[in-house]
């Protein structure tokens, strides 16, 4: 793993086809002066996510991109895990939003589905939940390293706010009064200068990645 500990420089691919994630990852990388191109800009195919864990899926996406592009590749696999639903939608967070299998995604419908599943399970508020993000870096040498971040909170219905993406409008981080959907990106994913933990799962995973590789 010694190679991974060298500073990452030059061009890298952000191996995501999700515009919300891409935007956040570009913002997180911006201070480091790397030239980040997206999987979409390079015309890379979207790999099928067949892994059984967030780490497996993040690594599969990063490996696919490093092979296709010949550049270091950074991928994120993430999801919302709801305690009363046994961790669902979890790995299937994107799939819960698909209107048709593999087709366009409707997160208003996905958030309704979460609420309906909670009702069906007989759950009572507070609906505790967490977001997970695993960021994997794959190098042209074949090395891969992964970093995880989590944020804990509760779910609110109806959804609140129009900012962010995905399940942000139902997620209220512990100790705060606004959902991720009501927060500016700068607040959701700020990296504190004093090294204390960031707020969002992705920013936390990024902090671990940055400490090791940037
Ligand atoms: P890529 O695989 O191309 O990166 P994806 O959208 O398919 O994009 P995932 O398989 O990791 O990504 O799905 C995770 C889903 O979880 C994603 O589509 C979001 O809806 C949701 N999610 C992840 N992080 C989130 C965040 O910060 N805020 C809201 N929802 C989030």
Can you describe what's shown?
- Helix content is 27%, strand content 21%.
- It starts with 10 loop residues before the first strand and ends with a helix.
- The protein is α/β, with parallel strands linked by helices and 214 residues long.
- Strand 4 (127-138) and strand 5 form a beta hairpin.
- The chain has a single domain (11-213), classed as Maf protein (Alpha-Beta Complex), CATH 3.90.950.10.
- The chain has helices at 19-29, 54-69, 107-120, 185-188, 201-213; strands at residues 11-14, 35-38, 73-82, 127-138, 144-155, 171-173.
- The chain has five helices and six strands.
- The protein has a six-stranded mixed β-sheet with strand order 2-1-3-4-5-6.
- It is globular, with a radius of gyration of 17 Å.
- The model has no long low-confidence stretch (mean pLDDT 95).
- The protein binds inosine 5'-triphosphate.
- The site of inosine 5'-triphosphate (ITT) has 23 residues, from strand 3.
Quick check: average pLDDT? 95
Which CATH-level-2 architecture? Alpha-Beta Complex
Number of helices: 5
Q: What quaternary form is this? A: single chain
Order of helices and strands: EHEHEHEEEHH
The spatial strand order of the largest sheet comes to 2-1-3-4-5-6
Q: How many beta strands in the DSSP annotation? A: 6
Radius of gyration: 17 Å
Biggest β-sheet description? 6 strands, mixed
Ligand set: inosine 5'-triphosphate
Examine the coordinates and then state which fold CATH places here, giving the name of the CATH topology: Maf protein
- CATH hierarchy class name: Alpha Beta
Question: How much helix, percentage-wise, in residues?
Answer: 25-40%
Q: First CA to last CA: what distance?
A: 15 Å
Which of globular, elongated, flat, extended, rod-shaped describes the shape?
Answer: globular
Question: Could you say which structural class the secondary elements and strand pairing correspond to?
Answer: alpha/beta
């Amino acid at each position: 793993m010694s190679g991974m500990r060298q500073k990452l420089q030059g061009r890298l691919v952000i191996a995501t086809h999700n515009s919300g994630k891409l935007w956040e990852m570009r913002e997180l990388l911006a201070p480091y002066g790397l030239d980040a191109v997206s999987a979409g800009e390079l015309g890379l195919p979207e790999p099928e996510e067949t892994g059984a864990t967030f780490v497996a899926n993040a690594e599969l996406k990063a490996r696919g991109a490093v092979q296709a592009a010949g550049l270091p590749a950074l991928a994120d696999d993430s999801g919302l895990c709801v305690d009363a639903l046994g961790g669902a939608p979890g790995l299937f967070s994107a799939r819960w939003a698909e209107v048709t299998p593999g087709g366009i995604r409707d997160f208003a419908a996905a958030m309704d589905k979460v609420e309906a599943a909670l009702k069906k399970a007989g759950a009572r508020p507070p609906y505790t939940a967490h977001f997970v993000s695993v960021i994997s870096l794959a190098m042209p040498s074949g090395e891969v390293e992964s970093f995880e971040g989590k944020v804990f909170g509760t779910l609110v219905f109806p959804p609140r706010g129009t900012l962010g993406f995905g399940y942000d409008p139902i997620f209220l981080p512990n100790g705060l009064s606004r959902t991720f959907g009501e927060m500016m990106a700068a607040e959701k994913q700020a990296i504190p200068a004093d090294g204390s933990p960031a707020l969002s799962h992705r920013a936390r995973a990024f902090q671990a990645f940055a400490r090791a590789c940037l």
